[in-house]
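Sample entry (84 residues):
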Amino acid sequence: MTRRKIERVQTGVRLEKRTLKVLKAVAAHHEMGLGDLIEGIVLHSFEGKAPFDPETLAFITSMRQAYGLDLTAADSHKLSETEE
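Predicted structure, serialized as tokens:
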């Protein structure tokens, strides 16, 4: 496999707490970094492709249950932050 050279930058992305926990679990499950996982999800999405196979989707379902993540795609543009 030929590796493509890229330039990465540090970013301060804010994510919903339980969503981040699930993403971290998926990254660990695939033995990859969180940034690599997010890049893969985004690149797949940009091409209209699903980023996960059925096995990973099953793992995500179990992690969503474990971390109480009840948000869905329908919630994505309806979220607001609580004040701490």
